[in-house]
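ARCHIVE CARD
Drawer: 12
Card no.: 0347
Subject: one protein chain, sequence and derived structure
Cross-reference: see card 0346
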Amino acid sequence: MTLIGSVNNAPVHKETPGFWKRFSKSSTPYWFIAPFFIGFIIFQLLPIIFSGVLSFAEWDGMKPIQFSGLDNFKTLFADARFWNAFRNTLWITLSCSILGTIGSTALAVLLEKVPDRLSSILRVIFFLPSVTSVVVITYVFKQLYNTDSGFINLTLTQFGLPAQNWLNDPKLALMALIVMLIWAGLGWDALIITAGLRSIPQEIYDASKVDGASGWSEFRYITFPLLRPTLTFVMVTSVIYLWGLFAQPQLLTAGGPLRATQTIALYLYEAGFRYHKFGYASAIAIALSFVMFLSSYINFRVMKSDVRY
């Protein structure tokens, strides 16, 4: 009886469920986010890793991969075509990011000065290029730049000025591309900057008016300092986008004339898919990624703001 009592009075220990049982009970949220991570790993992470490995090798897509150490990077630094593409891309990036940000800031400030109903209509008009296909925008500008029947040359001849060979002159083609890029991105940047302007408390402007501040003084000492975080975002996103520019120069000039509008992304495409030098193209991609990172870091350092309100 004692034994039976001791057995009946012994504490009962529940069996701890195994890992898979615990996982199956709490796995529902992971199934919802799994498609994103699977897609990211397959279509982004693995290609990035493969490109990094391939930059130290020679491969034409058919023969076995042959590792060559730093040969691709040594060739890259001595490649005149790469440095030509680098100069073109640098000029495009500096011109479009600086002039585009200045223009979009001015546009946003002006739109804040007009009545709300008119301002809303103008914002829609200026924002339309941002939701229009790159192919359509490039085709329209290609017709505008047409030497014989383009609207720009017809306007110039009406004022007695000579028509220009916009897309076939190496001195003018890059400028024509830059003008198109600035125009296409103006409305998007202005919309973001408008949101930044509206986040600045109106009380600060009211206090400045009491102190007798003029319009320029308000912009210099209030608007610009408090808008710097927004401008930093606009500059960084623009710089990253412009360093990887491909579609617009490819559709407008195909990198010509005489490689005057060839960007790094165009040269990368040429090296990889025209000459089948995938290892060298991967080295260009690594160099381009480093340039993007360095440019973004410089932007954050230059535009850093400690203003609080």
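Annotation on reverse: The beta strands are 57-58, 66-67. Residues 205 and 222 are 8 Å apart (CA to CA).
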